Amino acid sequence: MQHIRHLFFDLDGTLWDFHRNSYDTLHEIWLNTPQIHRVTVSFDRFVHTYHLINNELWDQYKAGLIDKDFLSVTRFERTLNWFGYFHPTIGKKMGDDYLRLSPLKTQLIDHAIETLEQLKEHYTLHIITNGFTEVQHNKLRKSNLSSYFATVTTSEESGISKPHGGIFSYALSKAGASKDNSLMIGDDMEADIAGAKSVGIRGVLLSSYENHAGDCIVIKNLSELPKILLGHATVLPS
Questions:
Q1: Average pLDDT in the 14-29 region?
Q2: Burial class of residue 193 in the structure, from the number of CB atoms within 10 Å of its CB (0-12 exposed, 13-18 middle, 19+ buried)
């Protein structure tokens, strides 16, 4: 592993705990939007519906079919519409609130800080993330993660979303790195690992349920990463 010099991390779900932070943000919005309490059976039902709609819209955004403004508002409008509530002003307010409140949440994936502390002495660290530039930078700042990373590449900045290889090539160029001296660490097999592999970057998958993922190594906890990279555990496959 001596040739590896640059580590590229995904943000949401790999370092920043997207599920817990998003849940807390949505709950805060739900509590502060009394209009929707009359039409939804429960917060959990609201969240389930929101995620179904949000995932569909994010697929469209990643394919370049819609822009971020349409996504951020429409996901809430359509969730409200699902429950028979039609009020675009409320949907826009919820969308604006989500973009404002979500980056303020600071729950991190277990062992994120200690892992970065160990690795920063030996590698140059970077971020590659699908997301809006301002939102992702705010997440990093509020969670005290910004200082660990030499570069941050977002899909909005590059104009390309993971798993498209173009965003990884863009990030390599921005970092002054090459595919041969770089490694991608992420929690999504398609977006992070397969996407990086498409341009020749090897990957490490963070997954609590995968045991094998092709020719990349799988870790169940971030604390395993320094042991592997610094030569104290099983080496990465070639």
A1: 96
A2: buried
